[in-house]
Design brief:
The chain has 378 residues and is mainly beta. It has helices spanning 3-16, 248-262, and strands spanning 34-40, 48-53, 64-65, 70-75, 80-87, 90-92, 105-112, 120-124, 127-128, 135-146, 155-165, 173-185, 195-201, 206-209, 217-226, 237-246, 279-281, 290-295, 298-305, 319-322, 338-343, 350-354. The strands form four sheets. Strands 1, 2, 3, 4, 5, 6, 7, 8, 9, 17 and 18 form an eleven-stranded mixed beta sheet that branches. Strands 12, 13, 14, 16 and 19 form a five-stranded antiparallel beta sheet that branches. The N and C termini lie far apart (82 Å).
Length: 378
């Protein structure tokens, strides 16, 4: 190869392998937009409104909680309810004074001087609380993930389904979420806490529209698939499913947000700030406000699963066995260890330690306080 050609090729190679810098496009909109997350229902208990400021594009951080605001709910009967701030940016109702009523319309009002130097106020559009039917059934079906074959163990999971119907045809738009709780028991006796319960909230948007169906009926809605790659199905599992009524505008909002958060996209796809909500700035209606003030009736149902499933993930391993004389320190590693087996009364005496605290203390993953509902299936 001629020297000149070699130099050209090397130059192209160096250019292609040079550092790539992040491209953050210039944007004209404010970088500290108000974000409102709130839901009020017809169920007893606390209702929460969360206020925060959005982060600039390109920042990898949570939104900044917005404290010091005055937050109110009002209805079409002339009632007004003040929400107290129990944590920075978290505003809650007094359950002894407020509970949503089906058929009434509610507005959210926010007063703050925390955004720039102007006292801004924000209001939501009036939102009617529509009725929601009861959940007819919540059930699961065992599913085979991988068939058993020579040298391969059968792997199973389960799919949880929901069915409901509204004979009065009052609710046509539905939203769902759920809370999972499962029991874990460490396989070792001499640990700090052996049995715990782990809980997890929904991490996806689940919607259903029956307005286009001939019958207001939902059958076999796939709510959640539990694979064998977690230990949720190892002992006992429970899910509390919640069903909410939506009006058409809110359904459209959540549908667009679903596209933003769950579809595979890129820089030039729809972005969250382009999803219009139902909250506006009184002083400057052109200002964008992110989020939605939700008003929904709520129906709930719980399921328990105690079946045994093949091939379920077992997370406890990486044990290190040391003599009694180590005193809880693993030689050569310079770190503390947690004892899981005490064989000091054996001959010869021994103890087994682990460098993974979760193998000796289940509270690193959950709570050792049994949930009040845990035995409701008995």
């Amino acid at each position: 190869m001629k020297p000149n050609k070699l130099i050209v090729l090397l130059s192209i190679f160096l250019l292609l392998n040079s550092c790539v810098s992040m491209f953050i496009p210039e944007i004209t909109e404010s970088q500290d937009l108000l974000v409102v997350e709130g839901l009020i229902t017809d169920q007893p208990g606390i209702n929460t409104i969360k206020l925060s400021l959005s982060m600039p594009l390109g920042k990898r951080a949570d939104a900044i909680p917005l404290g010091g605001c005055s937050v109110f709910l009002s209805d079409d009967f002339g009632n007004s309810y003040h929400l107290s701030e129990n944590k920075t940016g978290i505003y809650v109702t007094d359950p002894s004074e407020f509970c949503g009523i089906i058929g009434r319309k509610y507005m959210l009002k926010i007063f703050t001087n925390s955004i720039s130097s102007i006292n801004y106020s924000y209001e939501s559009l009036p939102m009617e609380m529509l009725p929601v039917p009861a959940i007819d059934s919540l059930y699961y079906e065992r599913e085979t993930i991988e068939e058993e074959s020579e040298g391969i163990q059968l792997k199973e999971g389960c799919q949880i389904y929901l069915s409901t119907h509204d004979p009065a045809d009052n609710c046509k738009y539905y939203k769902y979420d759920f809370i999972e709780t499962w029991e874990i028991t460490l396989p070792y006796q001499d640990v700090i806490y052996r049995t715990c319960w782990v809980s997890s909230d929904t991490n996806k948007i689940i919607l259903k529209n029956t307005s286009i169906l001939s019958e207001n009926k939902i059958t076999r809605l796939p709510l959640n698939f539990i694979s064998n790659e977690t230990d949720r199905l190892s002992l006992k599992y429970s899910m509390l499913a919640n069903q909410y009524s939506l009006n058409e505008d809110e359904y459209i909002y959540w549908e667009k947000l679903q596209t933003v958060t769950q579809d595979v996209g890129n820089l030039y796809d729809i972005i969250p700030s382009s999803v219009p909500g139902n909250i506006f700035c009184v002083e400057d209606p052109a200002e964008k406000v992110l989020g939605f003030f939700s008003v929904s009736a709520k129906a709930s149902k719980r399921i328990f699963i105690k079946d045994r499933f093949s091939g379920v993930f077992f997370p406890y391993s990486d044990l290190i066995c040391q003599p009694v004389s180590t005193g809880g320190i693993i030689p050569g590693l310079g770190i503390s260890a947690w004892m899981i087996i005490d064989g000091s009364s054996m001959r010869p005496p021994f103890r087994v330690y682990t460098y993974n605290q979760s193998c000796a203390d289940c509270t690193t993953r959950g709570t050792n306080v049994e949930p009040l509902f845990w035995n409701d299936d008995k």
